[in-house]
Amino acid sequence: MTAQHASALFPSATVLGYPRIGRRRELKKAVEAYWSGKISQAELQGAAEAIQLATVGRLAELGLTGPSAIPGTFSLYDQVLDTLVAVGAVPSRFGTLHDADGRLGVDAYFTLARGNAEQQPLEMTKWFDTNYHYLVPEIGPETEFSLSSERVVEEFALAKAHGTVTRPYLVGPVTFLALAKASDGAPEGFSPLSRLDDILPVYTQLLEKLAAAGAEWVQLDEPALVADLATPASELSAAVGRAYAALTAGAVGAQRPAILLSAPYGGLGEQTAAVAASGVEAVALDLFKGALPSDAELSAWAAQFAGKTVVAGVVDGHNIWRNDLAASAAKLDSLRAAGERHGFALAVSTSTSTFHVPHDVDEEVQLDAELRSWLAFADQKVREVATLADHLADPASAKDAIEEATRVIATRAQAPGVRRPEVRERTSALTDADFSRSDYAVRTQAQGAVLDLPPLPTTTIGSFPQTAEVRGARARLNRGAIDAAEYEQLMKDEIKRVIELQEELGFDVLVHGEPERNDMVQYFAEHLDGFDVTVHGWVQSYGSRCTRPSILWGDVSRQAGPSILWGDASSCSAITVPWAAYAQSLTEKPVKGMLTGPVTILAWSFVRDDQPLAETANQVALALRDEIADLEAAGIKIIQVDEPALRELLPLRRADQAAYLDWSVKSFRLATAGAADATQVHTHLCYSEFGVIIDAIDGLDADVTSIEAARSRMEVVNDLESHGFGRGVGPGVYDIHSPRVPGQGEIEELLATAVEHVPARQIWVNPDCGLKTRGYEETEASLRNLVEATKAARVGLTVV
Ligand code: MET
Ligand SMILES: [Zn+2]
């Protein structure tokens, strides 16, 4: 057994992180007000501090009382960006963002996140298998590292001044570099992880400052260790060894806080040995997604952690179902026994940060009380963790709470709507034929006869800017201030405006603009049985952007009853048909019908955990298949089924990926395979790491696929080329995540790159994603440039 470190004891209960957007999205409001010049930097700072202090107060109230039990996981925008500015790793393309004192201030921080007139922002991509997007560091041989922001120290000092010693959080050095991309100028094959030795001194310096400020523990987050990334596993292990040898070299207390290395989102697998061998004082393991070793292997596994604290993440931080406390207590009991034999201490935690779930179920008073009793949001999870810590201290004290959880979970299984025979009969009767369309060649011909499209057809991804009027109309409908007929008219007016705008701009394939959709998943959830929606259940998606995932708790089908909208037409159970049909009635050009695909509906909802995802996906797919049939019957010739989340649910371990891709691709095919040959099926995916799942995308068998490409400067066309992707594809030429208007010349260049790599007959021209969050002014200017650039690109183009 190694010597016990002279560090403070780790608290018995903690969470790995907490929502930072505020219970009423106060951070979103403050940050956006700052961006638009409505509040000063000091006011923004005041709002940020108020959220941090409210969090500390709330977590203490919920039972995180010991020193260092409360994580300092606040962020103004993104935790990877926080770490990037702390170590000063500004990509050289931004020039000088540091001030005269070598600091990166708030404006530099937001420039990296949002870009400026000359520079695109940092690329954004999904954080592990979640719907959270982080900013991707760009690291090259030229990147200079220097301590450039002490925000994490200041945040710690703020809480301390108010009486609480928190546990500061940073993305660990291995994960920070493993998630970085090579900078533009870096030589071929350059690996950001090769800069590890250069970044470590800055972390050491920061740890020293934290210790000086009184921090007893720091949390270094290393989720890269639970995923199979491009970096070989042996290199990651070696990096963990080097990094934590350096970071633990100083004495705890005087030179650094004790270190909690956290590994959320899955099991450490073969990285366990490297982590256990490192000198860190505590390790947080995801024991919800990851598993405890079998009884036979437990002892050898446990022996590795001698002298440390194992922080057992037994409460899922990533979904909203009430924890099976009895099962968690059993895991903890066997861990405790192992810990007693092998000399490690034990603490209880969530498996991941809870910022993937909303704040508090008790806010959702409109939900059925029974459904509410099945759920645990962040605050409830804190209580669950505290209960389990009580169990470890004194089993009798937690007995009632554990039994209550067992009882509630049992009632859920029997509740009406959870299993409906008519839905299950349909999914169990499916055969292979239900999953396939005719050959692509046959379809292209049939579609060509119906659609008369120019080369490089232009279109958008579906949504147009959601104006304050549109959102206001929906709020008034919900309040009862206007009736359904009035609301319907307002939406129709908006659709008409959007159709006229697209005609005027010269688009080839139009959209109705999706004004009636508060959210692309929630809208469907509201029209399907088996779902419920929340009022305050916001979670951060990126920066100030939040989504409100729906709750998929029962068997899914289209609702049988009439909708409150569309008078007589409502006797059918259609979700989108009347809006699409209305839009089509206004123009000769084809209007795309817009659906959200089954995988995305699952990924962006909180999904039932009581059956395989494949079964749930097929239920949703059948509902969409019914909708497609109704759209065709209403004269819609192009139908887009968005699957922006296909990549997101991809398991982090390679060994699990094939099974996922099989059911996810099949569910999309099940949704779309009922379409006639002449109906052109589109899909939309919004991320740029296309290469990873290109076979799956091919497997979707969509006629046209639009994807993100502008932010990553068309890198995706290389993947398309090397794969020999043969169907229609629209690599986005306008990054809608930033307010920047792309110039016509810039778009022409992107298109030139695209047609160099992919046959022009396959190319579509479109933005990266929907325009919902943009303002009209910048959108119109950007779309005008897009259409004009396309016209220029068509000149002299030979399409074969
Ligand atoms: C996140 S993907 C968005 C697709 C949707 N059709 C839209 O345009 O908003
Ligand atoms: Zn998108």
UniProtKB/TrEMBL annotation:
In this protein, which residues make up the domain named Cobalamin-independent methionine synthase MetE N-terminal? 13-337
GO BP annotation list: methionine biosynthetic process; methylation
Q: Is Repeat found in the keyword set?
A: yes
- Output the Gene Ontology terms for molecular function: 5-methyltetrahydropteroyltriglutamate-homocysteine S-methyltransferase activity; zinc ion binding
What is the protein's known function? Catalyzes the transfer of a methyl group from 5-methyltetrahydrofolate to homocysteine resulting in methionine formation.
PANTHER family in UniProt: 5-METHYLTETRAHYDROPTEROYLTRIGLUTAMATE--HOMOCYSTEINE METHYLTRANSFERASE
What is the protein's given name?
A: 5-methyltetrahydropteroyltriglutamate--homocysteine S-methyltransferase
Q: Which organism is it from?
A: Sinomonas puerhi
Gene of this entry: metE
